[in-house]
Amino acid sequence: MLETRRRRLVGIDLFQCALASHSTADGTGKQGHVMAKAIGIDLGTTNSVVAVMEGGKPTVIINSDGGRLTPSVVAYTKTGERLVGQLAKRQAAINPEQTIYSAKRFVGRRYSEVQSEIKNVPYRVAAGPNDAVRFEIGGKQIAPEEISASVLRKLADDASKYIGEKVTDAIITVPAYFNDAQRQATKDAGKIAGLKVLRIINEPTAAALAYGLDKKKNETIMVFDLGGGTFDVSILDVGDGVFEVKATSGDTHLGGDDFDKRIVDWLAQEFLRDQGIELRKDRQSLQRLTEAAEKAKIELSSVIETSISLPFITADAAGPKHLEAKLARAKFDQLTADLVERCVGPVKQALQDAKLSERDIDEIVLVGGSTRTPAVQALVRRLIAGKEPNQSVNPDEVVAIGAAIQAGVLAGEVKDVVLLDVTPLSLGVETLGGVMTKLVERNTTIPVRRSEVFSTVEENQTAVDIHVLQGERELARDNRTLGNFRLEGIRPAQRGLPQIEVSFDIDTNGILKVTASDKDTGKVQEITISGSTQLSRDEIDRMVSDAQGHAEEDRRRHEEIAARNAANSVAYQAERQMTELDGSVPPNEKARAEQLIADIQQLTKSESSDVARLRQLASDLQQLVSGLASAPHDPTAAGGRPGTTPGGDDVIDAEFRPSK
Amino acid sequence: MADKSEDKEEMGPGSERPESAEDTENGRLKAELSREHELYLRTLADFDNYRRRVERERASSAQAGKRELVLPLLEVLADFDRALEHLGDAPEWMSSGFVAIYRRLNSILQAQGIVPYESLGDTFDPERHDAIGLMESHDVEPGTVVAELSRGYRWGDEVLRPARVRVAQ
Question: How far is CA B15 from CA A584, B4, B19, B23, in A?
Fold first, then answer.
């Protein structure tokens, strides 16, 4: 079979999550009944994300505030209202004791276990029945599950609104290190939210699913997750669609926020040194500093220097003061070097616990916005040398996307959905001047049928050769030949008159059928291409990058050919016109035209690359001819593609090369 | 597979007759057909919902594009606001010129339907306000906005950027 396709998604029927299997679903054998939409939820410590399968593809849902991330924050206001997400976050500063964030750090844990966490939060945490954790809000005790439930409910509601269909079923992710109690509590949170939790899966497993790594046979995957406030590294084994967590390690208080704080501290210290004013004491200045720091950090992922400008940041007796600073990536790296270094220990620990060396890691997956930081990426490359990390999926969303894919499988949606295959490379035919004319662009979803009408370019041409090509280069000879065939028996006619329809039909199995038919005679010739050319992923990538590398050169050559074709066309029309107007053309103009035609033919025959001169000649000739009496008709307007002309004997001069 | 065995049970005592190979094949095909049909309907529904959403989003995506440009501009406007507070000391020609530039920038945004709103004296509302902190105040009810650190902007019905405020304790 011709490899004109690439599996985009994964059929994951076999997948199950080893660690989570003891605390799984209420029932998944519901295929064949009315299937509800199931969503995937990444219930994070700082932010949460929800995604859904739509037409076989995972889509991250935009929440009611217009964002893709929903803060995992719930607030109980003095008026007895409950706010979730962005709104809760906005009032946190004036209602700190009744605004619960980081509930995930408490969910499913005993009060006696979380003493160090309690110190970090402004709200009150108390011991409930059986040493359970409770938040004390307005004299009432609230369980962490209830907080998580509020976040889940909002995510599900936003999802329902977004996809226009009620959502009842969900897959929720948890860190791989979560114990039974924490998993059960998360599942209970789902129930409280009115959701049917199809399954609880591990965050690193979900991330691996988003990259389709469940299809791998016996591989070892490292998932490196540096989020807003937590760092997790997990080592997974995958085989036969089953993931097994071999080891996890991490740092529960390390994340992007720490990186921001380093910039804030640096800016504030510089300012204090120059101006003698401490900016961090003023809440508003601190807020502006923090926002500017985060923005600078993000910019430094793509540029090597950024400027931070905060006019009127403060004022003293001498008047207002402005903060102006430049931050180079090198300086940022220096400010955060110890934070990056703190990732090393857990990675080594996880490898050691799994009894593996870095050479045993086959795949690395990056999760969490902070993995965009160049120094973090460099660290990962240093630790696991020779492996390019998977990072094409947005690291903030990859866990939710993986969860949605799994939800789609359990809801019976993702099951050999052939619609999701695409052609990895463009397909087309060779046309005039050795150019590849694409009929099916790369990454077109199959099955697909595309057709186009071509014509002849020589007088009385009776056959056309169809040269079927695959590739991204402009010129036929730089691409891969898939097949050749000839359509014969075309009635002799003026060039450009015959209409030859060429159609490309790719079925769900990726088998390509190319058909050429002459509209006049009804003669049809076709070729089915399958079997011969299996392209590996590497080959496809090479061909695509090859085309990108040659883009400029190809464009120039394409331009040359186009100019040659256009000039030839003008010359051909001029010749015809001269013949038809025979006698009525003044001799001096006739001579001039003949000279121009001869020049053009000379240039095109020698495959000259003097595009400017060709264009000049063509334009002169055009002007000269249009000055003569109006011509009877333009033969190329009869259905052929414009700008086609015959040339010399050696030149590839047909829309399709005429058979001789 | 589980489904099939259930089907058999449902056929009850009347189904003593041993199943022929054809029957089995028939049943399998029927099950497969209904599964495929379900998937087909599902894809159709997905597409229908998708199309409707794309239509809905077409209008808002133009707005989303503008938002990317406008939001940072609002930060610049906030800088203007801060600058204006200190303009008293500047020579007249400078302050009036400065104010003129500020007005032009504002009117460009207003032409796009982006308008500032007042927050001072209002009751704190997280839909419209982003709280920076509390402030002692004896004159007003607790929960009232007593200081506006940067102005809120509305775009049509939507809050484009909430006002940064301090609230009475």
Answer: 96, 14, 9, 12
Q: Which of A77, A90, A95, A417 to mutate to test the interface with B (most CBs of B within 10 A)?
A: A90
Map A262-291 to HEC letters: HHHHHHHHHHHHHHCCCHHHCHHHHHHHHH
How far CA A132 is from CA of A99, A128, A137, A174, in Å, comes to 20, 5, 16, 19
Catalytic residue check, A104: yes
Residues of A in contact with B85 (CB under 8 A): 312
Is there a contact between A475 and A528 (Cβ–Cβ < 8 Å)?
A: no
Model pTM? 0.67
**Reported ipTM exceeds the 0.90 cut:** no
Q: Give residue A299's Cα distance to chain centre.
A: 20
Burial class (CB in 10 A: 0-12, 13-18, 19+), A267: buried
CA A238/CA A214 separation, integer angstroms: 6
Cβ–Cβ gap A90/B129 under 8 Å: yes
What stretches of A175-251 show up as alpha helix (H) in DSSP? 180-192, 203-210
Q: What pLDDT digit, counting tens, does each position of A600-652 carry?
A: 888 777 776 678 888 888 888 888 877 765 544 444 433 334 333 333 333 33
Distance CA A302, CA A602 (A): 52
Reported as a single tens digit per residue, the pLDDT across A57-112 is 899 999 988 889 999 999 999 888 999 999 999 999 999 999 999 999 999 999 99
Alpha-carbon distances, residue A144 vs A137, A273, A280, B127 (angstroms): 12, 44, 32, 25
Q: Which helix (H) or strand (E) holds A648?
A: none
Q: CB of A367 within 8 A of CB of A203?
A: yes
Which positions ≥6 away from B20 have C-beta within 8 Å? none
Q: Is the peptide bond before B116 cis (omega within 30 degrees of 0)?
A: no
